[in-house]
Amino acid sequence: MKKPNQWMVLKRLFSYLKPYKWLTALALSLLLLTTVVKNSIPLIASHFIDHYLSNVNQTAALLLVGYYMMYVLQTVIQYFGNLFFAKVSYSIVRDIRRDAFSNMERLGMSYFDRTPAGSIVSRITNDTEAISEMFSGILSSFISAIFIFSVTLYTMLMLDIRLTALVALLLPLIFLLVNLYRKKSVAVITKTRSLLSDINSKLAESIEGIRIVQAFGQEERLKAEFEAINQEHVVYANRSMALDSLFLRPAMSLLKLLAYALLMAYFGFHGLEAGISAGLMYAFIQYVNRLFDPLIEVTQNFSTLQTSMISAGRVFDLIDERNFEPKQENSAAKIEQGIIEFRDVSFSYDGKRQILDGISFQVKEGETIAFVGATGSGKSSIINVLMRFYEFESGQVLIDGQDIRQFSQAELRKKIGLVLQDPFLYHGTIESNIKMHQELSDEEVQFAAEFVDADQFIQKLPGKYQAPVAERGSSFSTGQRQLLAFARTVASKPKILILDEATANIDSETEQIVQHSLEKMRKGRTTIAIAHRLSTIQDANCIYVLDKGKIIESGRHEELLAKAGAYHKMYQLQAGMLEQS
């Protein structure tokens, strides 16, 4: 995808101003009023120097009071202008974050397969914060600089066109410096932001996998990898700072000093004959400050503006990502029986290597089937296709005789319950993790927990159903987390149940409780189970053995053992391992 240029990014950012156009207009009006007040102050001072410096009277005193009151007025107006800009800024960032998060929620699993979680987090947090800085501070300073520059230049021209022409000689140099800085800084700042995203990704990965890191003694390796990225970030941050130091404030300050020198030289050589008064000279010195100071501030903030623009581009990349989850028809079709059929279904994650190759099977209402096979044989891919996490390439997937694409996404999620090998619990309470924000009564939550035998351990917890759940449910055992996942699934009353190695990580003692819960869950529901332990699926109506994306054997447990094929070898291997243990 072609990257948009910075002007396109800026134009798009400004489109977010539309809902706040009146507040923005008010903020801009206050900025303009601040500029007018600011430029009136040197005029008052010039008039005082030329007419009242040697003859202080009541008028002069009033003029001095007015002079200082203008400073007070400038401060008050500037405060409210900055306040309104800040309100607009945070509102815009809220809207951008909402759009980014909303689009992320719709993306397909393939996007998350290739994009590190830390990188996504960085875009929605760090990059949007950079946009906030642009709107709240930098943008207001840029607009203020335009106002001040324009009004100041106009005032100088009205006072004396010759002195203004001397100062104007330096303006091409200023714009040349700014343009040169912009060209040289883009690549450096882009790389710096990219490395910051890499730091976030490495950090997120390390925190999430800290148990594995410590278990395998990988602390030093990860420290070295983190430091390598961190050091590279420092290198590019220093390069960015070097550009700032060369092109920004020092260069602008030198040009301002040169403007002073030109004015003083002209005043020294031609001041008297040209009729330039001391008051006029004072006013021009002040206006040179007013002309250069906003330009210095703008160039000082230019690196932050560049960072904000690059960050905005990264956020818009996320908002514009169109690798959505597979499309569904918003029809009124309902899943009533739960009959599932795969007809010659083929699927690939990358479009090159076939993961499922012509898979066909049928599950009748209320039946249980199971898939077994070596790692990479395609078991979980069947679930991914059935859950519509990925789009399949060819063939048909039918539910109750209708193409799976005919059902709405909401209907599929409501009628198909999924229990994973590693259940995920959210930070919250037991109740909120079972409800999952569904409209369920307390009685329905408790019934679901009792149904899967989770109520026994819940009643022993302080707070019971209001007991806190830590991140990922780390305070509970694997078996307890799995029972809560069962309760969550039962509470949604699915017609189809999918078990993805639901007992693989559970000890033998807990497995009996979980297995009893599973038996109750399966009654009256069409069930597809992916099994690692063959002992857990011996009562299945049909067991399918997969190898390299193809079904190589199928039948009931006893039938497959009698064939003495791949299933028989797997069963003997597991039985032998159990005997040894």
Structure write-up:
The protein is α/β, with parallel strands linked by helices. The chain has 20 helices and 12 strands. The strands form 3 sheets. Strands 6-9-10-3-11-12 form a 6-stranded mixed sheet, sandwiched between helices. Strands 2-1-4-5 form a 4-stranded antiparallel sheet, with helices on one face. Helix 3 runs antiparallel to helix 5 (117-159), helix 5 (117-159) packs antiparallel against helix 6 and helix 9 runs parallel beside helix 10 (249-274). The model has no long low-confidence stretch (mean pLDDT 80). It is a multi-pass membrane protein. InterPro entries: AAA+_ATPase, ABC1_TM_dom, ABC1_TM_sf, ABC_transporter-like_ATP-bd, P-loop_NTPase, Type_1_exporter. Keywords: ATP-binding, Membrane, Nucleotide-binding, Transmembrane, Transmembrane helix, Transport.
